[in-house]
Amino acid sequence: MEATAPPGTFFHYSNLGYKVLGHVVERVTGRRFPEEVQTRIFDPLGMTTAAPEITHAIRPRLAVGYVPLFDDRPTPPHNPLVPATWLEGETADGSLVMTAEDLATYLRMLLNRGAYPGGRLLSPESFALLTQRVIQSVSGEEPRFYGYGLGSYDVVGHTYLGHNGGMVGYFAGMLGDLDAGVGAVVLVNGPGRPGSLARAAVDHLRAATKGGEPPELPAAPDATAPNAADYAGSYRGAERTLTVRATDGRLVLDHEGSEIPLTPYGADAFVADHPEFSRYVFGFGRSEDRVAELFHGPIWLVNDHYDGPRSFDHPPEWLAYLGRYRSHNPWLPIFAVVLRKGELWQIMPAGADGFDDEQPLVPLPDGSFRVGADERGPERIRFDTIVDGQAVHANLSGGDYYRVGPA
User: Fold this and answer.
1) Boundaries of every domain in the chain
2) Across the strands, what pairs with 272?
3) Do 68 and 51 contact (CB within 8 A), yes or no?
4) Entry pTM
5) Which end of the chain is least crowded, N or C, by CB within 10 Å?
């Protein structure tokens, strides 16, 4: 991964960056990173169940982590789960094990601005550095900021501080209200939304301690879409036509005489529980705020609202790069590369944010591709070992992947 923007000008979450920071700690202190975490954080705070590295020795104490049965596609809540791949780890990008009670102990120290019953873990100056808003990470109605390992944002004049994280088969949410002095920790041993649950808990704790009406709880996912009628219509391409209908706020796809329900899966995105359509998100594109395009993996279709070009040029050698690529990395085991409107796109197994996991591949002068449209993006992918017109190997930001089939 390369540095593509001056510090403080572009946000891109990087596990590799945290690995490097762990090595910096070891170089400065002369001790292993797990030892520093144990002696500087866990021991002073009395976090007696916490372990600073994931090893076989602590495996009998852990809840079994679960992942979706299919790792190459969107994962709605009803999808089956299987035990996650076991792995060890000691690096600074995610190797801590603890109970919710011990993580709450750490959060309590943050809510007390570095203080704990035995003294101070952080000086006021260090706490200010730790929690400063270095860069905006999310824009919109509720802008969010990131600093040195903690995110923060404002809610009705209160500063919320915390971090969500995950390991293969495990996810965590930690959030506190610095002004109300309340917080919540949620741990999940499988797919879930612990950050959303922690936010709901803190919102209600804040209202209970400071007065006022508590906000509404997050709505449970359902199959309805408030603007379902926006997506209804026939979408046509060179080889096929798909028809989407809206009835009582629900979308269905007409397919070979049957109706396939489409379940909301993010902004302008839906998923279908059907063997032919389950691998990719149905994403809808807009033109002047009207839905005009439908994307599904390598499929691109348009309706009567689309008035743009319908044929596109691309370098012929790009056809060799199309397909699905897999590695032994349990964090990111597979991705697909498809051709859309004359551009290569990388499709990751989508989370509930849908289209956020589909990004264009922008060609660079050295023959590699940048992942994402933003020129400051640091992720790179390169294809090589062309056999019978197909790339056998791809390298994604240092990780090796091998072609396993067509997209």
Assistant:
1) 15-210, 228-302, 316-405
2) 262
3) no
4) 0.90
5) N
